[in-house]
Amino acid sequence: MPCFANVKVLKTCLRTYLKLGFPSMQTLPSCSYSSTWKPHLPGATHEPQPPPSPSPPVSVDIFTSGTNRGSRKWGSYSPGDLTFYSLIENYASSFDFVSLEKVLDQMKREKRVFIEKNFIVMFKAYGKAHLPEKAVDLFRRMEVEFQCKKTVKSLNSVLNVIIQEGLFNRALEFYSDVDASTSLNIQPNVLTFNLIIKALCKLGLVDKAIESFREMPPRGCAPDTYTYSTLMDGLCKEGRIDEAVLLLDEMQIEGTFPTPAVFNVLINALCKKGDLERTSKLVDNMFLKGCVPNEMTYNALVHGLCLKGKLNKAVDLLNQMVSNKCVPNDVTYGTLINGFVKNGRTIDGVCVLLSLEERGHRGNEHIYSSLISGLFKEGKSEEAMRLWKEMVEKGCQPNTIVYSALIDGLCRVGKPDEARKLLVEMKNKGYLPNSFTYSSLMKGFFNIGDSHNAILVWKEMTASNSNHNEVSYSILINGLCKDGKLVEALMAWKQMLSRGIKLDVIAYSSMIHGFCNAQLVEQGLKLFHQMLCQPETQPDVVTYNILFHALCMQNSISRAIDVLNIMLDQGCDPDYITCDIFLRALRERVNPPQDGAEFLDELVVRLIKRQKVVGASKTIEVMLQKFLLPKGSTWATVVKHLCKPKKVRETIRECWSKLCH
């Protein structure tokens, strides 16, 4: 019976097994010769043979035979360190951690040499298997148990594993322990600091991240572009954009060349803020530094222009992007289309979709759902249905997102029965409705006064195990209250509380409205005061208007004014409905009747004192529509606050110039 003559031959065979992707080492056949088994090599002409019967793993064969130099099976072979290293890599890549520990134990017994490279392989495997604590434990065992010196490479590998799992506090704790250990004496490098700064920024501890950043040069580490971009991103997310821009200047002074990724962080932050002037200067600086804008740069710019409503400029930028051979992606088109939809120009968004398709792209589910929703909101239901049919004809299969958008749209135009049929079709095709789907359908039935079918939808939602969230509960409570079913609404309210679901402003306002409609205004006021005690659910103008109307209908105008004072103190602006409620009450429920001019004039003055210029201007607009002239002093104050002094002077100067000529 043939045997392997030396170590080199066996290692070659073992590597061949691993490279060809043969079964796990736990199931590899014995290396003894068999005339009925041949490996199926690529390009081989022999017929494939059936797999062999299970036999002991190679690792076990090697370990048991390696100590017996006279074994007939292995001859004089004894496994070397490289054989063990190959086994470690194989077991780590297959996440066979049980066999991995057996290999490590065998290496310890035979006093083999452990190298750091193999531990890093194992750290990465634990990371991919989402077992960060296993990586930490192995790191601690390296020197004591395996006599392998730890370096910064091992530290960084374990740190990265922990951070990839989102355990940022744990990463900082681990690093602090290692850094404080005098026995380890591991000096951090640039990568170490980058990982720590990333963890601190993710936790919102930007000032501590800056401290770590300033600690780098004294410890012999020069920050790189990743360091700067990570810290800039952290500053921008905290709203400290000016500091991030200053960091860009510092970066260049220190001789670190900014990359497009660095510029993109700042451009994205400025665009979200709507500061297009500074964004433009930053893009010019980017070109001066020889950094070519990429798709991320253009996407941020398109997003910024859309936020400002400058959609035509966004389209021009898209064309410029194409001319610069930078290919727009789904994000670019989706951002632009969403911008058109939000600005009430959904038809233009459809034109962008056609342009996308002409360039060889296909609209995704987010684009189609946005356009369909937009068309329905603009009252263009026929166009929405036509777009739906075109989408299906083009081979783009609708999914839950698109189906939900269409169902919501049909309910908006008072067609919940058609929407229900679509829900059945959706489920038959294997797409599961979500809470938004059911909530839209339930709201649609409530809007046409069909509370029976709305409640059936709620029950179907419960049966399908779809999560009842604050939105669905708010719709149910609001619908029941409007239908006069206060008892049922209270039951839903109590169920919502018992399940620990967060009460939102809509749920509170709906319940308050239900109480007020049932002449239980005091109960509504109790809920209102409960809202005031919860910062996350402060009343909005709708809540206040419900109470104003209820109190005025009870001739409790003085109490309504008290609530109005609370509204102003809480920083909530009145709207047209607020003004109309009080004007009607002063004319119809006060003896002698008042026209309300003095009341609204005083309201404007109080708003101006609180720097609520928008609310003041809306109130003035109501006064003018009702032919109620404000006092001269009030008018002058409003104009002064609405117009910027420089622009006023420029306009006067321009007019004077024209008159003189």
Automatic annotation (TrEMBL):
PROSITE patterns named in the record: PPR
Top-level taxon of origin: Eukaryota
Transmembrane feature ranges: none
Region (Disordered): 42-61
Name of the protein in its database record: Pentatricopeptide repeat-containing protein At4g20090
Gene Ontology BP annotations: chloroplast-nucleus signaling pathway; mitochondria-nucleus signaling pathway
Sequence ranges of Pro residues compositional bias: 48-57
Family assignment from sequence similarity: Belongs to the PPR family. P subfamily.
UniProt keyword terms in alphabetical order: Repeat
PPR repeats, residue ranges: 189-223, 224-258, 259-293, 294-328, 329-363, 364-398, 399-433, 434-468, 469-503, 504-534, 540-574
Gene3D superfamilies: Tetratricopeptide repeat domain
UniProt source species: Arachis duranensis
Pfam families: PPR, PPR_1, PPR_2
Gene Ontology terms: cellular component: chloroplast
